[in-house]
Records
---
Amino acid sequence: MTRVVVSEFMDLPAVESLRDVFDVDYTPDLVDDRAGLLARVAGADALIVRNRSRVDRELLAAAPRLRAVGRLGVGLDNIDTAACEAAGIAVFPATGANSLAVAEYVVATAMVLLRGAYLSGNEVAAGQWPRARMSQGRETAGKTIGLVGFGGIGRMTAKLAQCLGMRVLAHDPALAPDARAWSDSGVGRRELDALLAEADVVSLHVPLVDSTRGLIDAARLARMKPEAVLINTARGGVVDEAALAAALQAGRLGGAALDVFESEPLRADSPLAGAPNLILTPHIGGVTRESNERVSSLIAERIRGFFRNP
Ligand code: NAD
């Protein structure tokens, strides 16, 4: 029987739908036991992962029967796609299935950071009344959001931001100036440095590849408006974390929200610890109940379809 190993959490009804046709080994914390993962994939025909299981040459060497990898998400930086292709292994990302979750995270954190007034719970509960300090919050409507990367998530974010009355700019070198994505969306095309200088909110939506590693470094952060906010839901390696922490500490940036980090979990001695106006979340931008259902059922369907018509 075809054997499917699932090494990270997946929506249970989707796991059950796989069990109807396959021999399924669903061990959501297998990702934290590398030796166990390498042992279990030895007999696997398919492997389903999120972003933490490294599907690299070592794992492929341990999985001689492997023919398909399902990715419960979209970034493929944890999967050696070239090695998979060379070995004839199909890779299925859940393209589009978590875009709305990320886009909502972006507009929500943009509003929180611009307004600057929602993180006062402890002070208010303690009887303090920081009203004067918190009365300088900014409205979102009329502000400019700059999207670095204008693919699936960038475009979804643009739509939500436009609904809020924001002006939207984007930078994406892969999209020609006359591409319909620009004219259909009403989004302004900019070079990266121009976007950084114009935007009140900068949101990153690029894959982590050689050309985007360290893209937002100290020099690029310095190009942003001093009160602008930065949101990173893409991948940690895209932002220089030490440079961002220094900019926040020095008051050279209005705030930031980071969902992804160079090293996950974030190390306790990270320079980001204690930086002001900083929202940190544990890589959940794309994960909601609804998106987990969509992502999981999409990947279950892809794996079923692959073994029906390989
Ligand atoms: P996508 O492939 O649809 O879009 C990525 C876009 O980035 C493409 O249009 C590409 O041309 C563009 N791009 C590539 N290099 C660039 C560069 N140097 N400058 C500007 N643009 C560049 O991908 P997507 O679905 O929009 O997802 C974007 C990224 O978001 C993923 O690769 C993933 O890393 C991340 N992501 C994170 C979460 C989360 O939970 N935080 C969830 C989903 C996706």
---
Amino acid sequence: MQRLTPRLRKDGVDLELIMLIRTILAASKEIAFRVNQGALSGILGSTLDENIQGETQKKLDVVANQLIKDMLLDNEQVRALASEEEDTIVAGTENAPYIVAFDPLDGSSNIDINGSIGTIFTIYNARNDVPNDSPEQFHQRGKYQVCAGYVLYGPATMLVLSTGGPTRCYTLDATHGGYLLTTEALDIPSETQEYAINGANQRFWHTEIKQYIADLIQGEEGIRGKRFNMRWNAAMVGDVHRILTRGGIFCYPSDTKDPNQPAKLRLLYEANPLAMLVENANGKACTETGDILDILPHDIHQRVPVIMGSRNEVETCLNYYKQ
Ligand code: AFP
């Protein structure tokens, strides 16, 4: 089985970018070790702090954030970083080529129940037209990501990565400590009979998504003419991993639950990297009105509605918004 670095070299990836990816993955191995230790690691449960978005931080969230941040700031390829757990951007090495954004632990409500969680990351070229410590470094459309990936800490630790080409899947070989290529190119089937949405939000949904989901639930008796099944991980990274593996549609639409927060998922370090991975695996990733990868961000913690997965099913869902 091929190791990660030779595979990236074969893909023509720049040496500096390879070094940067390896730094993120070194941090991921530390996190994977602690996740695998569970309660024995002594870092389950919550801290008393809240992050910028008013969410209680889990201890493991804080540890994972610190680990990745420290390792990235030690890396001379990183000009600035942004994290779900940091209020503002953090400046790195002056004139370094890349900027990195990450969600250190996506799905943190799964930490204490031994469910799947993951680290999501994205890399862009640093901008020379704005200062190193300006949030505008990150005001770049998702289509300009030079690398997107996640590490899923599930029963196996898996890395899913794209550097612009196919979305490849690697598995952490715990005995030797390296990521080995286990799927050359993920290929999301364009049709599906599986959907993922948090149905508890139904009363807050807009009419378009209400009607779409109602039609799925009608199954073979409704206009879709086929039966659908539902899955929900409470960790986007887990849901998208399933979709990358066997197809499906993932929806986190806008809703009326909180007028100050019309959407839940973060553009920079959740929607964009996962959108790139889905699109490069022949899937489709949209908001309710356009491609996720076309959005010009105006805030590092900006939130967007997300509809992604099997191409034909995403298009069917979007048609409800066009009627
Ligand atoms: P965290 O990044 O705070 O762990 O949130 C995870 C998440 O944003 C996303 O991964 C899930 O799809 C979503 O929350 C689940 O939220 P609900 O199940 O509460 O709707």
